[in-house]
């Protein structure tokens, strides 16, 4: 696979705070879980950016998390802010998952997946 392992393609940047090893491992775990929703053909050029920042302008400590999946033909982005960075990452994972499921449905061409797509359409999902 070009560009090293998938885990090596997760870029985490922070602003206004230091990231702990626990948080870094948590983010890697959550982003790697999302890779299953990406078609095999898109995994070759996949890169993931996670931007974390502490909002220092407000009196309450709010943390913002943004995830960007760079895929062929599309860039999938989600953003959330809350009082806990771990919670923000959880919500970010959920938002990205729903978008990645749609992306995979649109870009998968196997006969079985087309049948699943039609079934989902019929069921309204």
Q: Can you offer a commentary on this structure?
A:
With 125 residues, the chain is an alpha+beta fold. 43% of the residues lie in helices and 27% in strands. The protein has four helices and four strands. Strands 1-2-3-4 form a four-stranded mixed β-sheet, with helices on one face. The radius of gyration is 16 Å and the shape is elongated. The protein starts with 9 loop residues before the first strand and ends with a helix.
List keywords for this structure.
27% strand, 4-stranded mixed β-sheet, 4 strands, 125 residues, alpha+beta, 4 helices, elongated
Question: Quick summary of this structure?
Answer:
This protein has about 120 residues and is an alpha+beta fold. It has helices at about 20-35, 40-45, 85-105, 110-125, and strands spanning about 10-15, 45-55, 60-70, 75-80.
């Amino acid at each position: 696979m070009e560009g090293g392992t998938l885990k090596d393609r997760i870029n985490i940047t922070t602003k206004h705070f230091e990231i702990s090893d626990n948080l870094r491992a948590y983010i890697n775990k959550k982003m790697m879980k999302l890779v299953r929703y990406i078609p095999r053909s898109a995994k070759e050029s996949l890169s993931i950016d996670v931007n974390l920042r502490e909002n220092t302008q407000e009196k309450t400590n709010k943390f913002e998390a943004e995830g960007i999946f760079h895929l062929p033909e599309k860039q999938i982005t989600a953003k959330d802010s809350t009082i806990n960075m771990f919670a923000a990452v959880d919500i970010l994972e959920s938002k990205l998952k729903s978008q990645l499921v749609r992306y995979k449905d649109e870009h998968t061409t196997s006969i079985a997946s087309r049948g699943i797509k039609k079934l989902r359409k019929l069921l309204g999902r």
